[in-house]
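Appendix B, Record 12. Input sequence as logged:
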Amino acid sequence: MYVLIPMDSDEVQEAKLTKALEAKVWAQVQIEEGEVVEIFHNETYDGFENFSEAVVLIDAGENTMPFIELSMMPLIAPMQRTIDEIVEAYLFRELHDFPY
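Logged structural output:
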């Protein structure tokens, strides 16, 4: 499964979740059997070779329509900011659904 995350940097250890419109780079995290397999980076959210099943956004005020149109499930990371925190929250179902 692939999860898409807007980040403020392409430095994996230092990057933090940011608003989609302010993303300097998008991280596509490949997760298999509860572990991160690989992390891909791209300047645009729709520039990846593989389809992302979910997108993690910073709050409910973000525009989800571009992602819904691509059949991605939008999720909110209320407190998680790093890739590791977001993946852990995803695996333990601690990310929130968008209130439509």
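The first strand starts at residue 2 and ends at 7.
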